[in-house]
Design brief:
Pfam families: ABC_tran. InterPro entries: AAA+_ATPase (IPR003593), ABC_transporter-like_ATP-bd (IPR003439), ABC_transporter_ATP-binding (IPR050763), P-loop_NTPase (IPR027417). Residues 4-246 form the ABC transporter domain. It comes from Oceanithermus profundus (strain DSM 14977 / NBRC 100410 / VKM B-2274 / 506). The protein is an alpha/beta fold and 263 residues long. The protein has two domains: 2-87 and 166-248, 3-Layer(aba) Sandwich (Rossmann fold); 95-163. It is 38% helix and 27% strand. The protein contains ten helices and ten strands. It has helices at 52-59, 81-87, 103-113, 118-131, 148-160, 178-195, 206-212, 230-237, 242-250, 255-260, and strands spanning 2-16, 23-37, 41-45, 67-72, 75-77, 88-91, 166-170, 198-203, 215-220, 223-228. Strands 6-7-8-3-9-10 form a six-stranded mixed β-sheet, with helices on both faces. Strands 2-1-4-5 form a four-stranded antiparallel β-sheet. Helix 3 (103-113) crosses helix 4, helix 3 runs parallel beside helix 5 (148-160) and helix 4 crosses helix 5 (148-160). The longest helix is centred in the C-terminal third of the chain and has 18 residues, at 178-195. The radius of gyration is 19 Å and the shape is globular. The model is unreliable at 256-263 (pLDDT under 50). The structure holds adenosine-5'-triphosphate.
Length: 263
């Protein structure tokens, strides 16, 4: 079964430069088509501004497309927002939390929104955070006292509280130290193996895409320029590694994004 189906998806942003400035339009997605099968992990690779977050936000029902067809978990978008929202988990770098509240309080609040029983939700959240390597004593610390990496782990736990069959992960490991990165990657592999969770993730990290994803899509300037397994992409580009394949197939480099990533 196809968990995500996207056909000729388009999204343009328009903004005015100052009060009387000219209108500027930005074509964030320019006819993107792809699918993700049930139980598959698919990685979208692209430099800053290539449209990755826009695509994830449309699939997560946070943005409306301008054109094209989108189906998530068998429901059309727009149209099936309520059901899609109930059945997805989303993690992004801009995860909104009540920063003065503890991890526990934030997670219990989310559990309540999903209609989950608090004690069971707390047990589950603690189990996930333990697997992600967060010390149990941090569970009671206010979010504002936690590092970005710790907050990212809380965001992952929150996205999984309701056992979603589909996870949409926008740069899930950006900003994490190498050990935390490995813990998150191992956890995602286990989740797919144990629960058959379908995962769509965006990343700047070639090694991460290669480790986690059965198929990888190269996104550049709002277009899906190439897709396939890491080996297929390297073979097609006659490249030694995935970064070289990206440069050859898209005509774009990855330098700005790589320089931005602090590990
Ligand atoms: N709300 C918005 N208003 C105006 N332009 C936007 C908006 N959101 C995104 N854009 C523009 O759309 C394009 C794609 O942005 P998007 O955030 O999807 O890229 P990205 O691949 O996720 O980048 P990054 O790796 O930096 O997160 C960019 O040119 C961006 O400036």
């Amino acid at each position: 079964m196809r968990t995500i189906e996207v056909d000729d998806l388009k999204k343009t942003f328009s903004s005015r430069q100052g009060w009387f400035g000219a209108r500027k339009t930005e074509r964030a997605l320019d006819g993107v088509s792809f699918y993700v099968d049930e139980g598959e992990t698919y990685a979208l690779l692209g430099p800053n501004g290539s449209g990755k977050s826009t695509l994830i936000r449309i699939l997560a029902t946070l943005l409306l497309p301008d054109g094209g067809r989108v189906r998530v978990l068998g429901r059309p978008l727009p149209g099936g927002e309520a059901e899609v929202r109930r059945r997805i988990g989303r993690v992004s770098v801009d995860a909104a939390f009540y920063k003065k509240l503890s991890a526990r309080e934030n997670l219990l609040y989310a559990a309540q929104l999903y209609g989950l029983e608090p004690a069971a939700a707390e047990k589950k959240a603690r189990g996930i955070l333990e697997r992600l390597g967060l010390e149990p004593r941090r569970f009671h610390d206010p979010l504002e006292e936690m590092s970005r990496g710790m907050q990212q782990k809380i965001a992952i736990a929150r996205a999984l509280l309701h056992d979603p069959p589909l996870l949409l992960l926008d740069e899930p490991t950006t900003g994490l130290d190498p050990a935390s990165k490995r813990e998150v990657q191992r956890f995602l592999e286990e989740l797919r193996a144990e629960r058959g969770t379908t995962i769509l993730l965006t990343t700047h990290d070639m090694a991460e895409a290669e480790r986690l994803a059965a198929r990888i899509g190269f996104l550049a300037r709002g277009r899906l320029v190439a897709e396939g397994s890491a080996d297929e992409l390297k073979r097609r580009a006659d490249a030694a590694d995935l970064e070289e394949a990206f440069i050859r197939l898209t005509g774009e480099g990855f330098a700005p994004a790589a320089a931005e990533e602090v590990v």
